[in-house]
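Task 17 of the worksheet. Students: predict the tertiary structure of the chain below and write it out as structure tokens. Keep your answer in the requested format; marks are given for formatting as well as content.
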Amino acid sequence: MELITVISILAILTGIAIVTVGNPRQFQAIAEAEALKANLRFTQSKAMADLPGNVWSLNVDSGSYTLLRNGAAPVPAVNIPGTYSGTYTLPSGVSVTGGTGSFRFNFRGQPVNALGVPLAADQSLSVYGAPQIFITRQTGFIP
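Model answer:
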């Protein structure tokens, strides 16, 4: 009876260990997706702190993203948090697989199009191996 109990406990602990360890690349993708969300929020906060008429954007492609003000590098230069540059390159093996392009915000923090008009629909983007990122229309909320 004791042997069966010990074997049962070991089986449960092994199952927990397998689930906990998981795939390290997936953990890296999730961390990069969270960093991208934080940088989208940073871009939105820069727009809200700026004068009306100025639009801040984060231009995202499959392997990197760049912070821009009115479509150009801001002067004076503004670095993406945690970097020494306005551009961040994703690590090898992590890529944005959906929703690349410019994510723009106006002085109210609203997501806008290239003409500065608030968007009528939510935006989304995906980092391979991580949950999808959403930007809520009108408010710019990024859950």
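Marker's comment: The chain is about 30% helix and 20% strand. The helical segments are 2-21, 24-49.
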